[in-house]
Specification:
This protein is an alpha/beta fold. It folds into 2 domains: 148 residues, Alpha-Beta Complex (Aspartate Aminotransferase, domain 1), CATH 3.90.1150; 236 residues, 3-Layer(aba) Sandwich (Aspartate Aminotransferase, domain 2), CATH 3.40.640.10. Helices cover 37% and strands 18% of the residues. The chain is built from 13 helices and 17 strands. The chain is globular. Pyridoxal-5'-phosphate (PLP) binds next to helix 5. The site of pyridoxal-5'-phosphate has 14 residues, from helix 5.
């Protein structure tokens, strides 16, 4: 049966900002999705590390149904209980003291950058604050966050970029120390350092513990704020609730989105009370923190805790990594490394081989497994956090078959 609305028709009406795969998905359940022809796929993409509880989870259905019938949107002119309860859960389960809600990861990072700039102006007397970020990072697609993103390919043709950013190689202590002494040489200018605990889009590259602990020391000594972008790795994906826990550090500010709503759009920025310099009128979002998104996100958070999903992430992550590590040596021409934490893992392709990540993703899709590239040479595995042992085994069997065929 042909799709009711074909990709060709779709492309007639929707702007071509995405290089989509020729697949129209129609419904999902758990870690599986079905296309419009009724063909089943194992979903190891989860809306790009977003569908924490998979698809059509009863908790999501109940939370959505209950809240939409009660109250869905009221603006931030008034208080709403769901927003307060979600903020309370996040504060009680993190190092943050207070939360601001928005609708996406980029927007959460915008809020973090604004907060760090205001802190620099009002607390430290810095006129032109600079935020240091890492090369190969990814922080979003707004103008400030493409500037923060240390990858020129996302910035091309969008100049003038935002002033006030400086890039350093990731996991390189000497480079960041040098950058700070250079930038702060005449007078303090560095307002914040913004990093991912594990670079997701940049190729599933885990952060180094000693590097981040040294960054924390430098920030403490100089009054610089440490912002952790937890948009992709937060909410349990690494086997810790927050990626910064894996590094043994506490950020001053951190951001969350993706997995927070389990697929319902929501973003959050949390900070310690010591740097909460926002006053009424400083920052806002019409949809931010509406009762609907917050009630669903709270249900996701509570389910993560009640169903001990972090333990599942650790066990299934270990199973997946061990499986990939057993498969990789069979294809030395294709695979150079397996890396990741918890349920964010990357199969790193051999730089010399012409096969790129999109080719493997397409071949896996043809075999009924959905995967997502993280750049040209890394294939990313980010299944829902509810993934089962049998589903990991199934995915491993498919990837082995796909690599053998290539
Ligand atoms: N930060 C990180 C680390 C991300 O991985 C992403 C998206 O992939 C973003 C920010 C941007 O999030 P959004 O697409 O929700 O704006």
């Amino acid at each position: 049966m042909p799709a009711a609305f074909s990709p060709a028709e779709f492309d007639e009406y929707v702007m071509h900002t995405y290089a989509r795969f020729p697949l129209t998905l129609d419904r999902g359940e758990g870690c599986r999705v079905w296309d419009t022809d009724g063909r089943e796929y194992l979903d190891f993409v989860a809306g790009i590390a977003t569908c924490t509880l998979g698809h059509a989870h009863p908790v999501l259905i109940d939370a959505v149904t209950e809240q939409i019938q009660k109250l869905h949107h009221i603006s931030n002119l008034y208080y709403n209980e769901a927003q307060g309860k979600l903020a309370q859960w996040l504060v009680q389960h993190s190092t943050g003291d207070r939360a601001f809600f928005c609708n996406s990861g980029a927007e959460a990072n915008e809020g973090a950058i604004k907060l760090a700039r205001k802190y620099a102006h009002t607390v430290r007397g810095i006129d032109n604050p600079i935020v240091i970020t890492a090369k190969a990072s990814f922080h979003g697609r707004t103008l400030a966050t493409i500037t923060a993103t240390g990858q020129p390919k996302y910035q091309k043709n969008f100049s003038p970029l935002m002033p006030g950013f400086y890039y350093v190689p990731y996991n390189d202590i000497a480079a960041i120390e040098l950058a700070i002494s250079y930038l702060d040489y005449e007078k303090p200018q560095v307002a914040a350092i913004m990093m991912e605990a594990l670079q997701g889009e940049g190729g599933v590259s885990p952060g180094d513990r000693a590097y981040f602990q040294r960054i924390r020391e430098i920030c403490d000594a100089k009054g610089i704020l440490l912002i952790m972008d937890e948009v992709q790795v937060g909410m349990g994906r690494t086997g810790h609730l927050w990626g910064y826990e894996a590094l043994g550090i506490e950020p001053d500010i951190f951001t969350s989105a993706k997995g927070l709503g389990g697929g319902i759009p929501i973003g959050a920025m949390l900070c310690k009370s010591s740097c909460d310099v926002f006053a009424p009128g400083d920052h806002a979002s019409t949809f931010g923190g509406n009762p609907f998104a917050c009630a669903v996100a709270l249900a996701v958070c509570q389910t993560l805790e009640q169903n001990r999903l972090l333990q599942n992430v650790q066990a299934r992550g270990e199973q997946l990594r061990q499986g990939l590590e057993a498969i990789a040596p069979k294809y030395p021409n294709l695979i150079s490394q397996v890396r990741g934490w918890g349920l964010i893992n990357g199969l790193v392709l051999n730089a010399e081989n012409e096969v790129n990540s999109a080719a493997i993703v397409k071949a896996a899709m043809a075999e009924g497994l959905l995967l997502v590239p993280a750049g040209l040479k890394v294939v990313r595995f980010v299944p829902p956090l509810i993934v089962t042992e049998a589903e990991i085994d199934r995915a491993l069997a498919v990837i082995d078959r796909v690599l053998a065929e290539l």
